[in-house]
Amino acid sequence: MVVCVPVTADGLIDPRWGRADRVAIAEVTGSGIANWQEFDVGWSTLHDAGTEGSHHARVARFLQDHHVEAVVANHMGMPMVHMLERMGLKICLGATGDAREAAMAAIDNEPN
């Protein structure tokens, strides 16, 4: 499963999803993380640079470009939740602590 998670410089979950400065794309398997890449997205600055719709489109393009199947975050607004649901993505909210552990938790309850 390809998971996207907002990360801080010290590897923790960034509590901001739509305003995250950095996100990780993780390829998560039942035996661990097969691949982990971090990207500087600058969404904290870009969030207020245009309309909410344009920001959501920016986030959606990033997720599509990276073939994301699930988003793990601490919190996000309902408009973002609705957009991700329409994209067919799994959404795991309430994540805290280590970003890699949170990404691994996204595959819990997934069929083998």
In short:
The chain is an alpha/beta fold.
- Structural category: alpha/beta
Give the CATH level 1 class. Answer: Alpha Beta
The CATH topology turns out to be Nucleotidyltransferase, domain 5
Task: Tell me the count of domains.
Answer: 1
Corresponding CATH superfamily? Dinitrogenase iron-molybdenum cofactor biosynthesis domain
Residue windows where pLDDT falls under 50 for at least 5 positions = none
Total strands: the figure is: 5
Secondary-structure element string = EEEHHEHEH
Largest sheet, described in full? 5 strands, mixed
- Measured on Cα atoms, how large is the radius of gyration? 13 Å
Please describe what this structure looks like.
This protein starts with a strand and ends in a 7-residue tail after the last helix. The protein has one domain (2-105): Dinitrogenase iron-molybdenum cofactor biosynthesis domain (Nucleotidyltransferase, domain 5, 2-Layer Sandwich), CATH 3.30.420. The model has no long low-confidence stretch (mean pLDDT 88). Strands 3-2-1-4-5 form a 5-stranded mixed β-sheet, with helices on both faces. The protein has 4 helices and 5 strands. It has 112 residues and is α/β, with parallel strands linked by helices.
List the main descriptive attributes of the protein structure presented here:
112 residues; alpha/beta; Nucleotidyltransferase, domain 5; 4 helices; 5 strands; 25% strand
